[in-house]
Amino acid sequence: MYRQLVLVLLLFDFFPVHATNEGTCERWGLDDMMDLFKDGDIILGGIFRVHAKVNHRDLTFKIQPESLSCTKFWFRFFRFALTMIFAIDEINQDSTLLPNITLGYRICDACTTPSLSLKAAFEFLNGRPGISLNNPCKRTPMVSAVVGDSGSSQSLAIATLIGIFRIPMVSHQLHYYHSKCTVPKATCSESCTPGKRKATRKGQPVCCFDCLPCPDGEISNMTDATNCIKCPLEYRSIQKRDRCIPKEIEFLSFGETMGIILVVVALLGTCITLGIFSTFYLYKDTPVVKANNSELSFLLLVALMLCFLCSITFIGEPSVWSCILRHTAFAVVFVLCISCILSKTVVVVMAFNAMHPNHNIMKWFGPTQQRLTVVLLTMVQCLICTVWLSTSPPYPRKSSDYAKDIIIFECNVGSVINFYCALGYTGFLSCVCFVVAFLARQLPNNFNEAKHITFSMLIFCAVWITFIPAYISSPGKYAVAVEVFAILASSFGLLLCIFAPKCYIILFKQAENTKRHIMGNKGSQTL
Fold first, then answer.
1. 257-526 falls under which CATH superfamily?
2. 345, burial (CB in 10 Å: exposed 0-12, middle 13-18, buried 19+)
3. Which of 353, 344, 373 shows the shortest CA–CA distance to 456?
């Protein structure tokens, strides 16, 4: 009761009235509301934002303020007012709806200003002017109901004021009555639950809509949501589409079965290579080891051990250093292997030609020249990798390109041009080595290392040619597993094809580990 009394006092303070000499109540102040009026038995009030701005007045409280001036006509909201007028006219023309009753209206322009919205509400509460003093200044409100402002904050303010006088008000799927705000249940469609969004039906009332489920990767976490919200990059939506959860991050780890198998195979290859290295060192003075430059053989074994070990860098969570190491180490170490094999192949060809009279060609490709060839060929790859690392090095990257629900944690190569330059250079040396070894395959049977090199390079090239389509078609961590498998397979191919026959002779055919057997009868006689 206290609250109602205060608001009534404010009402008459805001719009004071006075008694005239004619015995009627008149309002003080300016009647500067812009409105549309039509008389009727029942008057409906309307408050709309027909203009968007109000020219500010000089409120010094020393002189009476000037009348309000609204600017920037807003045609969209003016259509709301026209819609209300059209609806009232249609009702009046249909005698079956309200027989013997005519509806009228008073529609005010609030000019997007909360104070004008409240002033319009006061106008509605003050009755018609010229009321007799027989019942001194006690008036009934001018309007019986109000169609409220399109702004929710203004509508709530108006509803609080007119609710005291039990005047209903409608504004937005909201109904204000007796100072209470309720949401009437839609008779056309049920509310949309979280995980779905509202989709209005064309040509039907706003209370008629469809509830569409949010698409994959988007959610709605409230009832009657009008839009779905996208989950962040590293999150995905659950099946109910009402919340986001972190995506699973996938990479080839040491803890999974595939990673364990590849690490075991890599360590096995390293141990086998180390065993062959030890065997060659123990029998370094035998003809089999000394033939064809034992120094290149030891260097090739060290390079193969590094090949097996560098495959392990492809396993585990990618980091800046692991991404740099796995690509550059792989490129340099494999070129070192191919350079050693190419030098050994050239030595075989030169040695065979040197067996013929008047050929002193070996002096042009002795141990010094062989070492220099390996260094120069490897330095070219080192130069390519240096440019690669200085311009755009490999880096770890999280990607959702392969699957929406999984984040692939992988190493991006950085500069694609430098990556293919390093790969192309390795492939070029492999092709040259294969061609030279293939041309030397017709050497005498005891000079069979060329055949072994030919077969090893055939396996090497076949593995990497097969690797390209398999790598491209494999998603995520499986692409890394294919690359590791190619490294291990080609390394085992080189190791077994080149060194297994020599180890067999050293360990099980010691009678053939002689200079006469290696050079052959014809070669021995010539020498």
1. Rhodopsin 7-helix transmembrane proteins (1.20.1070.10)
2. buried
3. 344
